[in-house]
Write a structure and sequence with these properties.
heterodimer, A: mainly alpha, 0% strand, B: 536 residues, two-stranded antiparallel sheet, 23 helices, 1% strand, globular
């Protein structure tokens, strides 16, 4: 399970960084989204991977921490998802504004010339 | 009475947040009303910040030791707000700059787009939160709040140049936020805490096999703040973005780079201070080298700038570099000087950003980037939108302000720019118990040379631009400048002059702040042992 998760995070990060460095604004926004997925999974993983262990206490089931998983990273990941989503939406608006002003989807607002 | 005073600590966050939200549904035609409410809110925050600073200066009088436990949960478990001398100082500085920028914006710039005053309030709330929080993840939340507002403010006024600069600014900051999260979660994964004070205590007794992981996390976290602070080579986004922003926004952005510096000061001394065992002083070499390269890059940029907006942007970099390497060099005496420099340079650069537009207003439209963007969305023909009376002797007043900016930026006597650089250098030379000549390393000398050369570069560039603008101006048109626009510039510069006159008490405050920072375990203990309300 650890191997699958870390390989997944690695693949997401690699594709995210690659797309982030591309010249089209749409590629940049997809890159940022992939990167934020990778980061969210990473935060989740930092609470250690546990199967069949709830993050909240059962009614009456106090004590024995071995039966529970760490709730803090799950709370953190929730906040990170919300903030990341809002920022992506905002970036999308700026992307469209840039497209409207310059008539191109190049990040510098003008096409590079290939002579 | 004490109960009421205790809640004073959260007001700098809640008040702007509430006012900003309340202003959103108000129609944009009532701009002046919105502006006045926003200004009143910022003024209240400023007064609170001054009260808090006075209390912080005398630690004994702080209610509940300057710790505010949200939800009344004790420190390592709940989120805390922590007030000390440094955060009180930053609160005051933020509110002061915000007041000036907001007054300036009400002359005409707030008409250039929607929701200016709401965004401005959110920015202040985010900044204040970042300065007050004692918790790493909460710091992330306030950081994002500040950044979200700053995206909106940077785009205020729209136009292709701002949208392009904004696009780059947002992409860079979103990537930096990802690094921030990776760093924070890595640190949490190893130490199991997000509370800064608890982290400092845990790190001293960390198992050796985990140390490298924490250091990796801290380094990744550090990169996120260095992007914000504008350390070379993470700073190429900064000059275009700051030059493209509308003047009141650029003026308040002068403090955004200082947030990065603030967090680095805070975490560096709290987590990697003398008590951190094997990790003590982690990353100092990087800060010194990066800071010096930033000074060099900034100084070259200052010399190469044709437009004043870019000159101011590169001055921000010089200021950041000076601070970063002063932190990294890590001599106790330098820190007080560096803090003094932080206040002085932020006020100066902010005043300069406001002044630029007033000076350039008289010049031929299309003469530079700023004028081009003004043309592009051109809703500045509406003379009736402008408020206040034009001032007499415009060129004389503007010229005098420009001279003061030049003296302050280049660090010439007798103003606070000189006092600040002198205090930094004295801290460097004056190491107790050692012979000066032997104790100074080559790095120290490089820093001295760079600090002085950067002042020279600023002076040359300001002279050149000043002569071109004020003496050799071919157009000869005198800009119309209103009282409400020049007053904020004068007030900010007067604050610098006041700082120079009161250098003694100010330096004593900075020295006490530096002593607090260099003794992080005291701070740590103060936070962790704070009693819950009702259990005193």
């Amino acid at each position: 399970m650890e191997l699958i998760l870390s390989a997944g995070i690695g693949a997401l990060t690699a594709s995210g960084v690659y797309l982030l460095l591309r010249p089209r604004t749409y590629q940049v926004i997809i890159g940022l989204s992939l990167l934020s997925y990778a980061v969210n999974l990473f935060i989740f993983g930092m609470g250690r991977l546990r199967v069949n262990a709830p993050p909240v206490l059962d009614p009456g089931g106090v004590g024995d921490l071995a039966r529970y998983t760490d709730p803090v990273p799950q709370a953190l990941v929730l906040t990170a998802i919300v903030i990341g989503f809002a920022m992506t939406a905002l970036f999308l608006v700026v992307l469209l504004a840039s497209r409207g002003f310059t008539g191109t989807d190049h990040v510098d607002g003008r096409e590079q010339r290939h002579d | 009475m004490t109960d009421w005073l205790q809640h004073l600590l959260i007001l700098p966050i809640l008040l702007p947040l509430a006012v900003g939200a309340a202003l959103i549904p108000v129609d944009e035609r009532n701009r002046m009303l919105k502006g006045l409410f926003g200004f009143a809110s910022t003024l209240a925050v400023f007064v609170i910040a001054v009260i808090l600073m006075r209390m912080a200066a005398n630690t004994g009088s702080l209610p509940a030791r300057g710790i505010y436990q949200l939800g009344n949960w004790p420190a390592p478990f709940g989120i805390v707000l922590v007030l000390d001398r440094l955060s009180a100082l930053m609160l005051c500085l933020t509110a002061g700059l915000a007041l000036a920028a907001q007054a300036y914006s009400m002359a005409r710039w707030h008409t250039a787009g929607h929701h200016f005053h709401s965004l401005f309030q959110f920015l202040i709330a985010g900044l204040n939160g970042a300065f007050l929080t004692g918790d790493l993840f909460n710091l992330f939340v306030f950081f994002e709040m500040m950044l979200a507002a700053s995206y909106g403010l940077l785009l205020h006024g729209s136009g292709p140049v701002r949208v392009k600069a904004g696009l780059h600014y947002i992409a860079i900051n979103l990537a930096a936020s990802s690094l921030f999260l990776i760093g924070v979660s890595l640190i949490y994964g190893v130490t199991g805490t997000l509370n800064m004070a608890d982290l400092a205590a845990k790190l001293a007794t960390l198992a050796p096999e985990n140390r490298q992981l924490v250091e990796t996390g801290a380094a990744i976290l550090g990169i996120a703040f260095l992007v914000k602070a504008g350390m070379w080579p993470l700073s190429f986004w900064l000059p275009p973005a700051y030059a493209a922003a509308t003047p009141p926004v650029a003026a308040v952005f002068a403090i955004l780079t200082k947030v990065g510096i603030y967090v680095i000061i805070r975490l560096h001394f709290l987590i990697f201070g003398a008590a951190a065992g094997a990790s003590a002083g982690f990353g100092q070499g990087w800060l010194v080298a990066g800071g010096m390269l930033t000074i060099a890059f900034g100084a070259i940029g200052v010399l190469a700038s044709q437009a004043m907006g870019r000159l101011a942007g590169y001055s921000v970099l010089v200021s950041s570099g000076t601070l970063l390497s002063a932190i990294g060099l890590g001599h106790g005496g330098m820190l007080a000087g560096a803090l003094f420099y932080l206040v002085s340079s932020t006020l100066t650069i902010s005043a300069f950003f406001l002044l630029i537009e007033l000076v350039e207003r008289g010049r031929d439209a299309g003469a530079d980037v700023l004028a081009v963007t003004m043309e592009a969305y051109g809703d500045f023909d509406e003379e009736e939108e402008e408020v206040g009376v034009a001032i007499p002797g415009t060129m004389a007043v503007l010229g005098l302000c420009f001279c003061l900016c030049a003296v302050l930026l280049s660090g010439l006597p007798p103003l606070s720019g000189f006092v600040a650089k002198f205090a930094i250098l004295r801290g460097l030379f004056d190491m107790p118990g050692t012979d000066m000549a032997t104790a100074m390393s080559a790095t120290d000398w490089t820093y001295v040379v760079l600090l002085i050369l950067s002042g020279l570069a600023a002076m040359i560039a300001m002279n050149r631009i000043g002569i071109r603008t004020f003496w050799a101006s071919i157009e000869g048109t005198v800009p119309r400048v209103f009282v409400i626009e020049i007053t904020p510039v004068v007030v900010l510069l007067a604050a610098c002059i006041f700082l120079s006159l009161q250098a003694g008490p100010a330096m004593r405050y900075m020295q006490a702040t530096a002593d607090d920072l260099l003794n992080p375990l005291f701070q740590s203990e103060r936070v962790l042992s704070a009693p819950r309300t009702g259990e005193q």
